[in-house]
Amino acid sequence: MNTTFENEPSIIHPDKKESRKPIPTADELLRLPRDGGPEYNRLVFEKSPYLLQHAANPVDWHPWGEEAFQKAKEADKPVFLSIGYSTCHWCHVMEHESFEDPQVAALINETFIPIKVDREERPDIDRIYMSVCQALTGTGGWPLTIILTPEKEPFFAGTYFPKESRFRRTGLMELIPNLAELWTNKRGELLDSADKIVNYLKQNSSPAAGELNKPILDKAYQQLSDRFDGVQGGFGSAPKFPSAHNLIFLLRYWHRTGENHALEMVETTLEKMRLGGIFDQVGFGFHRYSTDSYWLVPHFEKMLYDQAMLVMAYVEAFQATGKEEYAQTAREILTYVLRDMTSPEGGFYSAEDADSEGEEGLFYLWTPDEFRESLGDEGSKLFINFFNLEEGGNFFDESTKSKTGRSILYLKKNLAELREEINLPEEELGDFWEKIRQMLYGIREKRIHPFKDDKILTDWNGLMIAAFAKAAAALGEPQYALAAKNAVDFIWDKLRDKDGRLLKRYRDEEAGLPAHLDDYAFLVWGLLELYEAEFDPEYLQRAINLNALMLKEFWDPQNGGLFFTAEGQTDLIVRSKEIYDGAIPSGNSVAALNLLRIGRMTSNPDLEDKARLIGSAFSNQVRSVPMGHTQLLSAMLFAFGPAYEVVITGEAKAADTVAMLEVLNLNYHPNKVTLFRPIGIQKPAIAELAEFTESQTPIDGKATAYVCKDYTCSAPTTDINEMLKLLKTGG
Fold first, then answer.
1. Distance (Å, whole) CA 91 – CA 103
2. Would you say the pTM of this structure is higher than 0.90?
3. CATH level 2 (architecture), domain 5-204
4. Is 215-357+453-640's fold the same as 644-729's?
5. Predicted confidence (pLDDT) per residue in 656-695, tens digit
């Protein structure tokens, strides 16, 4: 969902420096009038970093709310809706070029009631109007520009608009007077167009039902295979997105079918991404996407959800192949998240900007001279070669079509290949490599950092909790489980209302905004992974309770599937349902797998039926483009089976129990759920949640595995190899 201009991140605006007016203190805010006064607009009272970035614009911005739309009705003006997010490069460009410009601002204020929305805080608003933009223009992206009636009905859509027209892109100074003339003289046509668009949205929110069957898995695999870049990995040409859920689906498809090409696609992509400029070779973590087909030139922003999804892909690849390089990449990503993206309270921040000092990527770029000054002759010569620095740089200023003199660091070979090239022992090279990396990191830390969006979002935190928990189990790293537990505790304490419903966003010691489907589905995912990492039944209980609340608030009893917004929310023109797995998986897709897992864990077939109804509700959409719904298809792989329930029972900290659980976590068995029943308790808490575990006790006092496959159970075993055999054959 990115426009062509979002795919040109290396354009540099040397005159754009960070010179935002400081946000008033809490005491100063109390003295401001409701409209922000002469120096600010109404956004100054908001918590969103994105909205606060626009608080000193001369545009008379309003936050989304009934007050703004009532004002539009009274003034008989359309609404200028602008949607973006704090780390969006072209959102910054449009702000600097137009929203900070008094001439443009005066025109907007005269013609419209302007509203600003942070898409990360209000994805419900963004998704509705983004679908309008895509339907009307064939493209989408941010910044998103929508013109609405005072009744919130859209009649014009676009993305980035410059101040003045250039090439074939209309400028705001030309567009706004044209829209004003249409509103004044051809309003009937505009309103008729708006009615048709709203009817389209309503029809699109109730997709036709059908059934999904096993051939859809093969079709998705074939579509991904057809688009696969066999040299550089990834799918399609530039730009290339990580799309970790595609890789996770392919791993599971390979596990089911034995199709080696599916595994090859995963491994090639994971290896090439780790070597490329899309990976921060010095500070770790992945950038948003690659603007080229080589994973070399990234769009430099870093998003929390990308880190979470990629950790899960690398961890599953490690489990599937046993290759330590995948485990190491997962550890590196989590090092970045723990160091730079974790709040003191335990929640995870949202994103880091692509820009610093007004330039895209400046923080991450290097010159050979910087290496020479820092590393000396021997070290600089070696690592200039390793990291492929060029004297003239490999990063271009697209405005001048010339090299900037700076380079993006990337590798052409992995560490093992480099070791052979310079004939150093593996341990010695690894130590040297890490020493140099830390030295470069220390130098870079002295630079001006990109802006960090420090709001804490429930849904993205749910993904990160799932990633930390999955890594904790597979890699045997207790600190990862602790990070997941701290984040869960933070959300449980700060991001729920008095009735236990989730809230969307926390920032500056304040939680608020309505939670959406993704918040519930993603947090349930995290809780399930954390239970299977720690086997504390409290996490499973919370997952069950939240899942039940999600079904109560979001389920569509007429057509099946889950709405994106909760029942009773009234500030939108339509209640939408979504299944497309885009930059992150959809809430419906994640919920489907959650329902299957909880259904198997608690012997609740009604939940499994709900998962079936999700697939059925969206079947026509999924069948049309299966590769666009790979997270849902991962759920279907579980549903089609074979799927397993494994109960381990024994003394919690005994060596044989620990060994049995460790082997389960190390091996790749994606279609299983695991429960642990401790001994020495008359009725353990897990037996309250999963009654069938009450009678499952150890044999001869030894750790024992009870393995069931597709509703049929095998005889219990104390032998780890026999347990693994049962997981492959089902007995």
1. 19
2. yes
3. 3-Layer(aba) Sandwich (3.40)
4. no
5. 999 999 999 999 999 999 999 999 777 899 999 999 998 8
